[in-house]
Specification:
Helix content is 41%, strand content 21%. It is an alpha/beta fold.
């Protein structure tokens, strides 16, 4: 009996070791399964953060509406989305300096930021296309303007609507500031040149304010994204071409730009979820179209940072 005792003890120890290993393996397996499914469920439920999107007022209505819908989704309930205007230049500067999570812009970053290195740090997320249309007060008596007529009006050479076939009424220019991507788009693709602010013109940061002023000020002219247009204004044709979704998609109406949402480097989890949501069918096929924007996927032409258009 005493001779067999060491063998019995060794066997018992071996059995206990095997039992312990089996228990650890089962615990590890169960833990992995729990963590695996828990990560997907808990990770989504626990996704949190504060997103501040600043910049383009042309893009602002879409981002605001999408942001409200995004925060209403249960798995994103711990993410806060705040949207502010200020113009594309402001948005690009603030995201570059780390003051904003997203910089909304009507123009490519390299067109607006003077520091090339800072522009290269930003990651471009194109979420829609916007068309910009010249608009006037309804009493101006004009429905169509040529490129040259627009240049002459915004440079101060033409000061009365009667000189372009309208009412005998002084023209009041409602312009956007230099930081505005909407202004940059209008000057680049409607005028083909930058113009100086002339004496007596009105300058406003917000597209909403421009709309209000043009609709209420006799003789006023300005320009707005399609998302701001309604019957309170006269939407002017450009060289005889209407600023419609179909004409923009086909490339026959030239005054349009991509709507960019820039991040400094790759976005964090919460911001990426919001940007993915912006590109989801829920937003692209409903909100984008309903608000007067154009899905990027609908464009039959493309445009690069130089303004060159390709099929």
């Amino acid at each position: 009996m005493f001779k067999k005792l060491p063998f019995i003890l060794m066997t018992l120890s071996f059995v206990l070791v095997l039992a312990a290993c089996g228990s650890n393996n089962n615990a590890g397996t169960e833990g992995s399964a729990s963590n695996g499914s828990g990560t997907a469920t808990e990770g989504a439920a626990e996704l949190s953060g504060n997103i501040l999107a600043v910049g383009s007022t042309a893009l602002q209505p879409l981002v605001e509406q999408a942001g409200q819908k995004f925060m209403a989704v249960d798995e994103y309930k711990n993410v806060t989305v705040q949207v502010q205007g200020g113009g594309s230049g402001t948005g690009l500067t603030q995201v570059s300096d780390g003051q904003a999570t997203i910089g909304n812009s009507d123009v490519f970053a390299e067109e607006k930021l003077e520091d090339e290195a800072k522009a290269k740090e930003l990651v471009d997320h194109q979420v829609a296309v916007v068309a910009i249309a010249p608009v006037s007060n309804k009493d101006a008596g004009v429905e169509d303007l040529t490129k040259q007529q627009l240049i002459d009006i915004f440079s101060g050479k033409i000061t009365n609507w009667k000189d372009v076939g309208g009412a005998d009424q002084a023209i009041v220019i409602v312009n956007r500031p230099g930081s505005s991507g909407t202004r940059a788009t209008f000057e680049k693709f409607a005028l083909g040149t930058k113009v100086e602010d002339i004496q007596g013109s009105i300058q406003e940061d917000s597209s909403g304010t421009v709309k209000k002023l043009v609709s209420e000020t006799p003789g006023a002219i300005g320009y707005l994204a399609l998302s701001y247009l309604d019957d309170s204004l006269t939407v002017l044709k450009y060289e005889g071409v209407e600023a419609s979704v179909e004409n923009v998609e086909a490339g026959t109406y030239p005054v349009w730009a991509y709507q960019h949402m820039y991040t400094k480097g790759e976005p964090d989890a919460a911001t990426k979820a919001f940007l993915d949501y912006m590109l989801s069918d829920e937003i692209q096929l409903t909100d984008v179209k309903e608000l007067g924007y154009i899905p990027v996927s609908g464009m039959k032409v493309k445009r690069d940072a130089t303004g060159a258009v390709t099929q």
